[in-house]
Design a protein that fits this description.
The protein is of the alpha/beta class and 250 residues long. It has 10 helices and 8 strands.
Length: 250
């Protein structure tokens, strides 16, 4: 079964919609649990999540407009708290996962219908890790082109917004996410998977938010992302990357 792990920090605008989406587009028989790992939200995210904490699929105690539909048959939803940092939060979620397949998902990324079955199909074929192709919720031509390129298996087309499924065995064989990286942690894990030739791209579209591009501007943000990629290529440390990110993006 699959354990879905979602790191959050101030995601009140998206988290209830994402949980509803996951439940409506998957089969509860395939999902062990949905684990939401909070890194210290202060925007009301916890107020949305607490009503469903540790509720079982056969219970109907949720009565909230924000979580409409989550009181029907569904997998367990667990709310955990950890130190801030996506790598730390995702590793913490993995420690509490009961499924044999881990599915890491950003709070603003919405996988396709039947995503759970697509993942299981790949694992049954012997593919231990991979992602979906991606599309942004934007009609900007560059973002549409970038989305189109994610259907290919090229390393340069990968990123955390595409989500990440990986068997628990392989995840712990690699050592999980490198917690030294506050940013770029997804790419560090992906690098390890590509080095082992353990990565496949499912040719179904996940939709992710272009909110950061809308906030900073497409070309400005893309320039900074390219700069971070090149800096890492030339050996920049985790702290160097974080400093650049904080100075120019965060």
């Amino acid at each position: 079964m699959i354990s879905i792990i979602i790191p959050v920090l101030n995601e009140a605008d998206t988290i209830s919609r994402l949980l509803t989406h996951l439940i409506e587009n998957s089969s509860s028989k395939n999902i062990s649990e949905i684990i939401v790992v909070d890194g210290g939200s202060t925007d009301g995210t916890l107020d949305i999540l607490r009503p469903v904490r540790f509720l079982k699929p056969d219970r109907s105690e949720v009565n909230s407009n924000q979580l409409k539909g989550l009181d029907c048959a569904r997998p367990d939803i667990k709310l955990l708290s950890s130190d801030k940092g996506r790598a730390k939060q995702m590793n913490f979620g993995a420690k509490h996962a009961t499924g044999s397949i881990l599915y890491f998902l950003h709070a603003d990324s919405f996988p396709p219908k039947d995503f759970d079955q697509f993942i299981l199909n790949e694992v049954q074929k012997g593919n231990q890790a991979g992602c979906f192709r991606m599309q942004f919720d934007s009609n900007h031509w560059w973002l549409r082109l970038a989305s189109w390129l994610t259907q290919f298996s090229w390393r340069a087309s990968r990123g955390g917004d595409q989500s990440q499924f990986i068997t628990k065995t392989l995840f712990y064989d690699i050592g999980g996410y490198n917690e030294n990286y506050i940013i770029y942690e997804d790419n560090i894990l992906i690098n390890e998977l590509y080095a082992r030739n353990e990565f496949t791209v499912i040719n179904k579209k996940l939709t992710t938010s272009a909110r950061l591009y809308r906030k900073h501007g497409v070309w400005k943000l893309q320039y900074h992302f390219w700069t971070i990629y090149v800096k890492k290529w030339f050996g920049a440390s985790a702290q160097d990357l974080l400093y650049y990110y904080k100075k120019n993006i965060c």
